[in-house]
Amino acid sequence: MTATDADVAVVGLGSMGSMAAWQLARAGADVIGFEQFGIAHDRGAAGGESRLFRMAYHEGPEYVPLLRRARELWLDLAAASGRPLFSPTGCLSIGRPELAPMANVRASVTEHQLAHEILDPDELAARYPQHSPAEGEIGILDTDGGMVRPELAVLSAARQARSLGARLHEHTAVRAIEPSGDHVEVVTESQVFTARTVVVTTGPWTGELVKSVVDHVTVKPIVLTWFAPDDVTAYAPDRFPAFIRDTDGIHVYGSPVMDGVSVKFGVADVWDPIDGARDLTRDLDATALRPVTDAARRFLPGLHPDPIRYDVYMDGYTTDRTPLIGALPGASSVILLSGFSGHGFKMAPVFGQIAAELALDGGSGFDLARMAPDRFALGTGA
């Protein structure tokens, strides 16, 4: 058997990679990791100071077991790091009850007996006057939901991985991943490393290393904006939970005041895909931001109508909005986690656990059938 530099190499140390490195090291594996930028950089999917955590899931109740374990691991990481990574603000879903996302939320809380409250239109308007609900819209408050801190979480997971012996190389770009018999070669600009298994967690950059992904994973910008409220106290976490809303085909989401100044607000599926991660631009003019400002005026009238700041991130979106998790076809020693389609960060810790299970045990206790990479015609190997 060929001698290797590590049991497992993790390529990409953002949301999923930092968690995978932590979980692998926690399981006792010899881990080496590579990140082309610094840890917790802003050129991927993890960022924006806060991200929603919701147990009652718009995408379907089948995600709840993953979310339940993710919440446990978020609290574990917060305790181990001594950092406030999770804020239990609750998460409020707003929409007409017959809409598919709201039906999925109700199915989530019913099938999995999640703690929740259902607010009829009058109760919704009375309890959360900050929102401007449309006629017939209800609210479902997921009381186990809240906010997670993305940059701090990535830093914390990487620190925990290092404390457990993982060797993480920052500012070290991987140029190729080459399966070779009983090991895999990880080629950087200056050196070739070897490992028994490689976990690829490179987010929107995945197409540069796994070429066959390009036809099935589209890179899209994620634009996040912050608005100043007229009354900051009305949007404090104890009065204004994280929220997600679908009205007239517009999908919006946001979080309470976490910085003492502003409410975070976003609109999904507005900006066109880009050719690749290197084509991301952060320069947006007033016209480009208009879908967000128009939505903020309509749905949260207590906010000053122009954002005080914005930022742009990106993620890889599969055609079915379901991630790719598993071994690459024809290359069992290369484990891919990609295509999280803008809703993976909340589950990052459990996906890190799954990456560790796949790399060390060859399988996972979670049902990953719908996420299998071979549902698309991915090419053999990396």
Automatic annotation (TrEMBL):
The question of whether Oxidoreductase is a record keyword is answered with yes
Pfam families recorded for this chain? DAO
Q: Which residues form the FAD dependent oxidoreductase domain?
A: 7-358
* Enzyme Commission numbers on file: 1.5.3.1
> Do you know which InterPro entries this protein is assigned to?
FAD-dep_OxRdtase (IPR006076), FAD/NAD-bd_sf (IPR036188), MTOX (IPR045170)
The coenzyme or cofactor needed here is: FAD
Q: What is this protein called?
A: Sarcosine oxidase
